[in-house]
Amino acid sequence: MNIMTTSPSELPRWLTLGLPVALGIFIALLALLWPSSIRVWFAGALGLLENLQVLALAAALFVAVKALMSPLFRSSRFKAAWLGMFALGLIYILGEEISWGQHYFGWGTPEWYQAINDQQETNLHNTSDWLDQKPRAILEFAIYFSGLVYPLLAHYGRLGWLARLPAWVWPTRACLPVALLVLFVQLLDKTPLGDMAQGIGLRLSEVREFYVYFFLYLYLFSLWRRRHQLNS
After folding, report:
1. What is the average pLDDT across 19-29?
2. How far is Cα 222 from Cα 171, in angstroms, rounded to an integer?
3. Which element (helix H / strand E) includes 221?
4. Mapping DSSP to helix (H, G, I), strand (E, B) and coil, where does residue 34 land?
5. Where are the domains of the chain?
6. Interatomic CA distance for residues 151 and 57, integer angstroms
7. What is the CB neighbour count within 10 angstroms for residue 31?
């Protein structure tokens, strides 16, 4: 099955397009019309965006674990390993986003760990670029390539050696709008609007992060919805 075609099991447009675009418009309207509300709604580790990120990651992890428990995926070592990789990665990202529970339960950070953690939190990603920026850059590159470049290559018949990989590995058209939003917000953040948003307390990098996590959820949910159609 061509990943760019619509199938009965594909995700609804309200989820893949309507919801993420509506969120972006909502944030933009708040920033333009009620800028003072941004610091109220989005400030701190328990702000709206932070909680939406956690929700998207938790939903993605739930789908990954549910798929791993299905005989349709466990019967193939490659599919099981693929989903297992996502599940482990999501556990790490989710744990890091909530500082492994510190954001919700409020325990203190030992003094010896505060000295090596940029934010004085009980997580790893604030201790080294190799546990934060670099993995994040790799993940975003994977989204751009699989969600934007690959569909173009497939459309023009220029896949080359990529055609050897199973078609189910690649995101379907359901993930395309969110991949575009990730790119759009990243580019927007490099303009003067990014500085203006920062000035009222809105970090566009946090908006982009939510879309990255939502992309992972849509990708895994799409795999689950198409499970009976996937070839080994």
Report:
1. 96
2. 8
3. helix 204-225
4. coil
5. 13-97+132-225
6. 25
7. 19
Q: How far apart are CA 29 and CA 37, in angstroms?
A: 11
Asked if residue 213 lies in contact with residue 178, where contact means CB atoms within 8 angstroms, the answer is no
Quick one: pLDDT at residue 50?
92
| Nearest CA-CA partner of 7 in 161, 164, 173 | 173
Nearest to 47 by CA among 201, 214, 225: 201
Residue 28 and residue 196 in contact, taking contact as beta carbons nearer than 8 Å:
no
Contacts of 157 (CB under 8 A, 6+ apart): none
> Is the pTM for the entire model greater than 0.90?
yes
Nearest to residue 50, comparing CAs of 13, 104, 88? 104
pLDDT category at 124 given cuts 50, 70, 90 is: confident
Unique residue bearing structure tokens 């510190």: 102
Dihedral of CA atoms 71, 73, 77, 78 in degrees, nearest 10, equals 170
User: CB 156: neighbour CB atoms within 10 A?
Assistant: 8
DSSP state of 44: S
Alpha helices in 69-146 (DSSP H): 71-74, 77-97, 102-105, 111-114, 133-144
Give the pLDDT band (50/70/90) at residue 126: confident
DSSP 140-162: HHHHHIIIIIHHHHHHTT--GGG
Q: How far apart are CA 189 and CA 172, in angstroms?
A: 27
